[in-house]
Design a protein that fits this description.
single chain, 325 residues, mainly beta, eight-stranded antiparallel sheet
C-alpha cells in the first residue's frame, strides 16, 4: 500500500495536477450572525434584464444558508414583486424571479443537487425568455419553463443578504459576481468561469470581482457602479479556487474497471472532453477526445497495472484510476 501511495504521489508531481490546481485570488467572507454582513451594490435597471445570466463563485459553510445575490422587492398590492435572487434552499442553489404584479408571482427553480460544503463551486443561473436553468461548474442542475418577463427592481442589489427581507444572510465566501444581459450557454460559462474578465465583454452589464483584499469599496468593472462591503464581511487573502470538479468527475463512468485493457466511457454531460492517460510513473501513454455521450479506450497493448485518466473540459479537470489486468 505504501508503495502504491508513493507512486501515486509521483504521478501527481509528474503531470502537475492536484485537487486544488487553480487561481489564487482574494475573496470575501460573509458572517450570517452579523447584521452588517453584506455588500450593497446600489440600484440599476440593468441588474434586471429581460434575458440574463448571473454568475458567482460560492463556498458555503456547514449550517449556513441565506442569500447569494438579490435585488428583490415585494409590495403586497399593485406593485407586486420585482427583481430576482439566487439563494440557498438547504444546500441547493435556488433561483427566484419576480414576474407578477397583484400580490406578487414568482418563477422559481431549485437545483437538483446540493452544493458541497467548504468547497468552491461556480453557480450560474440563465433565463432565456422561455426557461430558466441552474448550473454548477457549467453542468446543468435543472430547468424550468416559463415565459413571463422579469419585473425591474428598484431595490438595491445585495450580495450575501436580502435587501427586502433581512436576516437571510450567507454563511460562506463569494468571488467574481457577474450579471449579463444575454443567456449564456454551458460552453460559454465553462470557458470563462475560471478567469477574471476585462469588463468589455459583449453582454456583460456588471462584474464585482471581490478581489480587492482590503477596504470597503467593491469595484465594479463595467459601469463603475461600485459596491460597499459592510463591517460584517472579512477579506480572505490568497484563496485557492479548486478546478478539480467532483460534479464533472461523477458525470463519467468507466467500465469494466479493472479490465483486460478495453474501457467503456459513458458521459452524461453531452460535451466532448479532452483526455490523457498516464502510467503510475507519470509517462503519457495515450491522449484523445472523449465523445459527447459514449466512447471506448483501448489499453490492451500496455502492461498490466494502474493508470490515471485525466479529463479536461475548459478550465475544469477530473481524474479517474483505471486498472489493466
Amino acid at each position: 500500500m505504501k508503495k502504491i501511495t508513493k507512486l501515486f504521489l509521483c504521478f501527481l508531481l509528474c503531470v502537475g495536477f492536484t485537487s486544488i490546481n487553480a487561481q489564487t485570488r482574494n475573496t470575501l467572507e460573509f458572517d450570517a450572525t452579523n447584521a452588517a454582513s453584506l455588500v450593497n451594490c446600489g440600484t440599476s435597471a440593468s441588474y434586471s434584464p429581460a434575458v440574463f445570466t448571473a454568475e458567482a463563485w460560492v463556498n458555503i459553510y456547514a449550517g449556513g444558508g441565506g442569500t447569494i445575490m438579490s435585488n428583490v422587492e415585494y409590495i403586497d398590492g399593485g406593485d407586486g414583486s420585482r427583481g430576482f435572487e439566487i439563494r440557498l434552499s438547504g444546500q441547493k442553489a435556488e433561483f427566484n424571479m419576480a414576474v407578477g404584479v397583484a400580490n406578487g408571482d414568482w418563477f422559481g427553480l431549485i437545483a437538483n443537487n446540493d452544493l458541497p460544503l467548504n468547497t468552491w463551486t461556480h453557480v450560474a443561473v440563465v433565463y432565456d425568455g422561455s426557461k430558466s436553468e441552474i448550473f454548477y461548474n457549467g453542468v446543468s442542475q435543472g430547468t424550468l419553463n416559463g415565459n413571463n418577463p422579469i419585473l425591474v427592481s428598484q431595490n438595491d442589489f445585495y450580495l450575501g443578504e436580502h435587501p427586502f427581507w433581512p436576516n437571510r444572510r450567507l454563511s460562506g465566501q463569494l468571488s467574481d459576481v457577474r450579471i449579463w444581459n444575454v443567456a449564456r450557454t454551458a460552453g460559454e460559462i465553462q470557458a470563462s468561469m475560471g478567469a477574471f474578465l476585462s469588463g468589455s465583454e459583449t453582454g456583460l452589464v456588471a462584474n464585482w470581482k471581490l478581489d480587492e483584499g482590503s477596504g470597503t469599496v467593491i469595484n465594479e468593472q463595467v459601469a463603475n457602479t461600485n459596491g460597499t462591503a459592510g463591517a460584517g464581511t472579512t477579506w480572505q487573502l490568497n484563496t485557492i479556487l479548486s478546478t478539480h470538479d467532483v460534479l464533472l468527475e461523477n458525470s463519467f463512468s468507466v467500465y469494466p474497471n479493472p479490465s483486460k485493457g478495453v474501457f467503456e466511457i459513458k458521459s452524461s454531460i453531452n460535451q466532448a472532453v479532452d483526455y490523457k492517460i498516464y502510467s503510475i510513473m507519470g509517462s503519457l501513454v495515450k491522449s484523445g477526445i472523449l465523445s459527447k455521450t459514449f466512447d471506448s479506450i483501448d489499453l490492451s497493448d500496455n502492461a498490466e497495472g494502474l493508470y490515471i485518466l485525466k479529463g479536461n473540459l475548459g478550465n475544469r479537470h477530473f481524474i479517474k484510476k483505471i486498472v489493466v489486468r
